[in-house]
Amino acid sequence: MPLSEFRKTSARWNCLKKVDTLGLFDFCTNIISLDSLEHYHVSNLTSTDTKGAQLNFPDYERHAKALPLIAHEYTHFLDATATVWGMNRLTLMQKAYECPANNEKDFYHMKVFYDHNKRLKFPAYYTTLEKASHTEQPWECGVTSGVEFTADGKPGKRPIAFIRFYNSDGEGITRTPISMVSLLENSAMAEEFEVRFGLVNRLGTEKVVEENLLEKSLVEYLYNPELAEYSVCALLLADRQNCQDLRLALYCSGLISRLVLNATPEVFKAAAKNLDNYLIRYGLERNGPQHKNIKYALKLDNHGMLFYLLTMQLPDNCLAGPERFLAGLAESFVSLGIPIKMYIDSAQQSIKNSEAILKSSKSLHLRLLAQAAALNFDKLARWPNPLTFSDFHLPPSLLGDFSQYQFNISTDNILKDVDLDKLYEDLVAGQLRMEEFGDACL
């Protein structure tokens, strides 16, 4: 199937289409698409241009149109490949796309990956917009819990952590789950806004005006009730820490999101066994409904629940400075019975295990993506935002005019010369077969 069909085949699983309107990362083919950009927008722009010397205003406008979007979508690529969750996603993809056509007993691998993609974002039913008289700041938030409905329309057992937002009059604004999309978009938006602020800081006399406009756009993004599933992580942290600096709250919540993306089953099991500090802190009953829901969610490796717990267990005023925040994160981990060494060691071992599985893939592209992901993992796990994209192995991206754009042109980049036509042709066949079988499972 030619790459010209990409827009059509990527539409079904575009779980970020409500907020990522200018580009996308396709979770079924691993292709980055920068729909709103064409070749002339990005000519001579590379990964080194996210940082640098002072800009005149015309150059700033050109950089500001392209680089924040590029950083956003490449962050999705890194989180979806070079984390524990991302590498596991690639192994699910390999098993789904390469299961033998003559062995129906292995077809379940296609359904597993089908369900994995389906669960990235909860259906609209689980998010509610309420009729508050106003949605002005400040918002307050509270946690509630629920369960997923099963395919036959009955309440199931899988818990969902919901965050409900209220205005200053106590009126409900919206209720949203913390989904995988929440974590992924939080990480990408944190990177995008760091790049935006970095570009503004390279201006001269125009800096003050542009900085005020950028801060306004950040407020409008975070406090949009219709986008609450995407901003919930930053708003939860800001509320919990009583933080008025929204850029700081987004930045720090982005770091927590990536920590959660690198959580292994061992981490979830440890947290599930060590909830006493959380229960005591918030006056909850041991073996009560909330305790049982949280514990069961962790047993299911629910990333949204782990983000919620790590955020709630941070000490007060831990956003006062970088050292205080890092110390607070460590304290939060310890309070949930998660040894830092175990977290790090288990993540590194998980990446090695996934890479070993993917080395046997029939797909040259999956083998190459796995090699790059393992190399990217250590840098991504250690480096805070803003990322230095020139140090990562990154593939070309697809522009709106269907030309291919190399963001990182370094000769050390092992993905630099990937041909998107061949990548798409290689993986879309598995995607379509997976979709057909998944749809057939009644």
Structure description:
Helices cover 53% and strands 9% of the residues. The protein is α+β, with helices and mostly antiparallel strands and 442 residues long. The chain has one domain (3-440). It has a four-stranded mixed β-sheet with strand order 1-2-7-8, covered by helices on one side. Strand 7 (397-399) and strand 8 (404-405) form a beta hairpin.
Count of discrete domains: 1
Give the SSE string.
HEEHHHHEEEEHHHHHHHHHHHEEH
Sketch the major β-sheet: 4 strands, mixed
Structural class: alpha+beta
Terminal CA distance reads 28 Å
User: How do the strands line up in the largest sheet?
Assistant: 1-2-7-8
Shape: globular
Can you count the helices?
A: 17
Sequence stretches where pLDDT stays below 50 over 5 or more residues: none
Percent range for β-strand residues: 5-15%
What is the strand tally?
8
Helicity range:
40-55%
Average pLDDT reading: 94
CA radius of gyration is 22 Å
Q: Oligomeric status of the shown chains?
A: single chain
Describe the structure concisely for a colleague.
By secondary structure, the chain is α+β, with helices and mostly antiparallel strands. The chain contains 17 helices and eight strands. 53% of the residues lie in helices and 9% in strands.
